[in-house]
Amino acid sequence: MIEKNYQPADIETRMSVVWEDSLAFKAGRPDRRDAVPFTIVIPPPNVTGSLHMGHALNNTLQDILCRFERMRGRDVLWQPGTDHAGIATQMVVERQLMERQQPGRREMGREKFLERVWQWKAESGDTIINQLKRLGASCDWSRERFTMDEGLSKAVVKVFVELHREGLIYKDKRLVNWDTKLLTAISDLEVQQTEVKGQLWYLRYPIEGKTFNPEDPSSFIVVATTRPETMLGDTGVAVHPEDDRYQKLIGKNVVLPLVGRKIKIVADEYSDPEKGSGAVKVTPAHDFNDFEVGNRHGLRRISVLDREGCLDLLDNEDYLRDLPEGAAQFAEEFHKVDRFAARKRIVERLESFGFVERIEPHTHTVPHGDRSNSVIEPYLTDQWYVDAKTLARPAIAAVRSGETTFVPKNWEKTYYEWMENIQPWCISRQLWWGHQIPAWYGPDGKVFVAETEEEAISHALGYYVEQEVITPEQGREMALDRNKREGFITRDEDVLDTWFSSALWPFSTLGWPDETPEVQRYYPTNALVTGFDIIFFWVARMMMMGLHFMKEVPFSTIYIHALVRDEKGAKMSKSKGNVIDPLHLIDEYGADALRFTLAAMAAQGRDIKLATSRVEGYRNFATKLWNACRFAEMNHCAVPDGFEPAKAKETLNRWIAHETAHTTREVTEAIEAYRFNDAAGSIYRFVWNVYCDWYVELAKPVLLGPDGPAKDETRAMVAWARDEILKLLHPFMPFITEELWEVTAKRDGLLALAPWPLKPVEPTPEQLAMLAATTGPTDALVSPAWVLPIFDHADFTDPAAEAEIGWVIDLITQIRSVRAEMNIAPATLTALVLAGASAETKERAPRWADVIKRLARLSDISFADRAPDGAVQLLVRGEVAALPLKGVIDVAAERTRLDKEIGKAEADIKRAESKLANEKFVANAAEEVVEEEREKREAALARKAKLLEAMERLKQAS
Q1: For burial by CB atoms within 10 Å, which of 348, 383, 590, 784 has the most?
Q2: Confidence of residue 778 (pLDDT cuts 50, 70, 90)
Q3: Listed residue (64, 199, 49, 196) closest to 126, CA to CA
Q4: Binding site for ATP: what residues are annotated?
């Protein structure tokens, strides 16, 4: 029996246990052995993480797809797992050590520190997994993976070694984003560009051969810079080749102030004549753009900063080379001075010699580490790189050919732009937590890449014997005796970028590089659901690695969802204090309400403006469903064996069968097309408006009337439609629907495994062959081209039933609307005249007269050839229905009220349009503020239109 009150917390706890105990979500169930697979890999959340709203949206949409396909009979694998999140996890543990005043990482040593991290992972690493379960995620939790599991580590090592063997992984000295606090290279994804108010220094660089005189512009060239401290590493000055001011200086040298090094003036289009002085200093070792300019002109790279962001000048051979006598003293004075302190002291020194022309306030963006909040330094260092350009070519071709498609399709442009301009991928990180790079160095620095240390030793001994560094006898002894080779080779201390292991996720989680049955069955996957912010860093890399190692795309569809913002459209952030915690919403309103809210608002390409009131509204929707099911139960509604809805005799019941079939098709097609909001909107309208508000209401006289065939059929149809609702709603609101299914449907088996109302037809061999010729055999059974509807009821249509019940509903709805517009009190009954009614209407009206009068608050229904004078006329399905309101309402007072309301609407429109016409407002106001004004204008325009319509109706009543 259904409890009186809907309590989400009780239901969610109970249903979670039921699903887990029954292994409902396990892939490869015996009953699905011959079913077509459907695979999704979860974007692995960081092991340090907790559920945020982006996770809630992402996993809700994935779960809708998985539950939908599971009900359609597919063998669903939703592969779960977590990412080791190198930097984030290492920071968490280091912070714990510091807070507990325990020895730090360096004091502990690598081995002990890693033991500590694994201990922390065991204690706290399951937090987000448990939170995903609270959300209702139907993953195969028995297959949970971690990016540093033994099997996944094996895959990472194999990929690294093979790519190195093919020349696609190599070591190089290049600029990287360097975090001076974490002391590691970081990816572009981990860099945040922050706008800061700084200064622009205009510095005079003396021209070689001329006596420097601050009063003589011909004796120097002025460069503008935001970073005077890096000038010590300048190796050139760039001017635009078409800048007339500097044509005679191109090719000449300037003397670097304070340092005395001679550097060349080069012509390069990177210099913008419209910015600053039109001349820029070139510091190839400390700026990414300068690095490229330096490469084009063969300029030296002189690094003047160390790992901590301090000046590194003493014993710096690159810096000291070619310095004039006396410059070394300057190097000693500034050695190991922090970059920002050095900036101040260098500017003071430049000013004292007259090298500063002027200083201007300057607002610009400065890169910061997203975790350390430290200013990121472009740093010249040896790192490991992947030749991403080579790997990107097949990945670009796969999207162009349609093997993989983006939804929405406009994201393909973003993908192409980045992939076609892709840079070498820096994959090494100066951390301890992560996959240690499988590379060892010999005594002379020679690199040996291998899957194991034993293999590396073998390669090294063979190489050094061949080079006659050691004798063959020494080589044999070292091969046999570990003690004799101790320290002969040393392993690279760096670990791999977290994204490297994540790039293998679609196949490493299935057991690759071993040829497991899971790899054969579940790769390639069907769909990837992810955010746009990691198209470059994860999606593109999975495409590259999947195609290179598996020779197939990792997924056929990439669905990109938008951001979840606050109700005003602002991006959520802790600093703004507008972060909405999904776990709080689940506690308050239930997981089903949150899930439905996110799905209902997930329009393709549009950010979600999340208001708590929306979640509360969908909690009310769940309550509405709950109460409707209780009503059915209390009226003894049940589906008898052998019941066939298509054979119903009562018009009302045939109508609900018709509407159910229509909704089933709408929901199915919308989910297939990743239009989650349309699917949710369709089922919401059907449940609330069609089933609860109309069908149950119109069925009440029958259910409360005398026993008989009509009552029996209606009871059966109420229960049947309820069960169809539970099926259609299950992917969106799994907890409440599973509970109600268990209590009311009285069927064997879980709703999660019940058949979806609309079943796909399996293609014929001829269709399969045709499809395989164009898209490949693995896509044959998942292509929408072959998902054809066959149904016990989805093909059912009854235009006659729809016409009759639709007319009743439209008539009542329009009368209610007029009563609301005209401020007619509920207690006031009005007459209805059906003017020039057709034979069908004359037949229907008496049959539904009692219902129409009760629901539309009518005193009488009559027929006439034409509408009486002073009646408000309604057009209902092509026929006139008239409400004689003369004497019922005060027309003059009502006109005054409507005029006043129209005036208010017009004032609101004018106010919003005035703001939107202000270019400064649109340019400077926050995006969400501008959007709010647009919404205000649209709402006021819609309100005015309805008021004008009401005014026109009022004229009829005059």
Answers
A1: 590
A2: very low
A3: 49
A4: 574
User: Token pair for residue 946?
Assistant: 């309805």
Instruction: Say if pTM beats, i.e. exceeds, 0.85.
Output: yes
DSSP E strand boundaries for 896-940: none
Of 81, 1, 167, the closest CA to residue 744 belongs to 1
Residue type, 474: Q
Q: Give me the residue label for tokens 């709080």.
A: 584
CA 196 to chain centre: 28
What is the C-alpha to C-alpha distance for residues 121 and 123, in angstroms, rounded to an integer? 5
Tokens of 106: 């360096």
Helix (H) or strand (E) holding 670: helix 651-672
Q: Pull the structure tokens for residue 59.
A: 């996993």
Instruction: Say if residue 307's pLDDT is above 70.
Output: yes
pLDDT score of 138 more than 90 = yes
Which residues on adjacent β-strands are paired with residue 135?
Answer: none
Query: At residue 770, does pLDDT exceed 80?
Result: no
Q: Helices 472-480 & 453-466, crossing angle to 10 degrees?
A: 170
Strand segments (E) across 42-161: 75-79, 81-82, 145-146
Q: Check: CB of residue 236 under 8 Å from CB of residue 300.
A: no
**Residue the block writes with tokens 């001349």:** 279
Contact present, 605 and 674 (Cβ < 8 Å): no
Tell me which residue of 609, 616, 561, 611 sits closest to 588, measured CA to CA: 616
Distance CA 379, CA 386 (A): 18
The answer to whether the Cα torsion of 806, 812, 813, 818 is positive or negative is: positive
Average pLDDT of every residue of the chain: 90
Alpha helices in 835-889 (DSSP H): 839-856
Nearest CA to 144 out of 130, 124, 158 is that of 130
Closest Cα partner for 164 from 543, 462, 506, 451? Answer: 451
Per the CB < 8 A criterion, the answer to whether 297 and 315 are in contact is no
* 272 has pLDDT over 70: yes
Q: Any idea what the Cα angle at residue 581 is, between residues 580 and 583, rounded to 5°? A: 145
Q: Is the pLDDT of residue 753 over 50?
A: yes
pLDDT at 324: 84
Residue 755 structure tokens: 């058949």
- Report the C-alpha gap between 498 and 88 in whole angstroms: 10
C-alpha closest to that of 717 among 644, 807, 666, 792: 644
**pLDDT score, position 792:** 43
The identity of residue 794, as a single letter, is: A
Beta strands 879-884 and 262-267, pairing class: unpaired
pLDDT at position 206 is: 96
CB 654 within 8 A of CB 591: no
pLDDT per position as a tens digit, 643-670: 999 999 999 999 999 999 999 999 999 9
Q: Of 242-246, 479-483, 619-623, 632-636, which range is least confident?
A: 479-483
pLDDT in tens, 792-846: 445 678 999 999 999 999 999 999 998 988 888 889 999 999 999 999 999 999 9
CB 525 within 8 A of CB 554: yes
Distance CA 413, CA 400 (A): 10
Residue 613 banded pLDDT, cuts 50, 70, 90:
very high
Give phi and psi for 762, each to the nearest 5. -70, 140
pLDDT of amino acid 767? 52
- Own/partner pairs for 823-826, CB < 8 Å, 24+ apart? 823/889, 823/894, 823/897, 824/857, 824/885, 824/888, 824/889, 826/857
pLDDT at 771 exceeding the cut of 80:
no
Binding site members: 574
CB 335 within 8 A of CB 313: yes
| CA atoms of 656 and 718, how far apart (whole Å) | 9
Average pLDDT over residues 124-143: 94
Write phi, then psi, for 220 (nearest 5 degrees): -155, 165
Helix axes 127-135, 591-600, angle to 10 degrees: 80
| Token pair of 382 as six digits | 């040896």
